[in-house]
Amino acid sequence: MEKKYCHNELVSFEDRDHEALMGVWWTGILLKKQAKHFFSNFLSSEVQFNIMMVLKYAEKPLTQSELGEQLLVDKSNITGLLDRMEKAGLIRRLSVDGDRRCYHIELSEVGRKILEKVEQPYRNYIKKLMSVFSKKEIDDINRYMARLEKAVAAEESTAFNDRS
Amino acid sequence: MEKKYCHNELVSFEDRDHEALMGVWWTGILLKKQAKHFFSNFLSSEVQFNIMMVLKYAEKPLTQSELGEQLLVDKSNITGLLDRMEKAGLIRRLSVDGDRRCYHIELSEVGRKILEKVEQPYRNYIKKLMSVFSKKEIDDINRYMARLEKAVAAEESTAFNDRS
DNA sequence: CACAATTAGTTTATATATAAACTAATTGTC
DNA sequence: GACAATTAGTTTATATATAAACTAATTGTG
Question: A25 contacts in B (CB within 8 Å)?
């Protein structure tokens, strides 16, 4: 069995672990690229879609920081993302009673309408993608990814270049 | 069982398929972030590490296009990446006999030395990360990711906004 | 050989991503 | 209540990412 560092035949390693990890990595990249393309007629990126989805389904108004935490987006990145989305009329920043430091972010009417157009097609698309897997395999993937995420989080402190 | 669109408790869907796909997505993002941090003392990104690994293990000299294909990096992106890496003394562009359009990219001595410093620690790091999985589970992940990649590729033509 | 089509790489415009330094507002502590 | 520490968000600098338009060189076709 050939082990690949990346996606074609020119380079191969002998490390099944590495291959598995790179598999998750590359698949994630592919999914991101595809999603970006999927939304490109309506939104500048899949990140904007994710933001809108989080806003739509949030159980309470979210601040920029809370949004960033959920989506693993840095606060300095959130500022620009929301600037562009605000400029495009997709979201609004509302001042918050009692804390003049932060905003509550909400979907605008335009944003809601665009989300209505793309949400279901995207869900269908994902449904179709994932239909290559059985119920049991889907559960496997869910469990494996959860464990891998936990392992990554646990290694956070032991990185190569930590000065601690 | 709770289904999450993203990483915390504020938003939840009822879609196990979607959750699995998002799991791969998020885990990929986490891996990228961690890797970037891992290399940050020596390289400006994990992408540069990947480029150097491909160059080291390639069986023949690679052009910019070939490099880009392997790493899923757009040709317009490769130009800038290699510009920065060349400026940092990590790689060289060599003119190619008989085709004045392209370059062969090779690791410089400096690049080779830096790679020597970071490659084994990174491999160990990955080994440790993946040690939470059994041999059988590693094989599962490899198979699942390969199938998911294939499914993604197969859907490429049916994207929401195709004008075909 | 002429010349259209293709290929390799660059440039430009725009978006996403992070770290670090920064401002302004709030909280904790005495 | 004063003031240090923290928190929310912005700014700046730099890197990565894509699409589209571009230049220069090569290939394919008559």
Answer: 28, 31-32
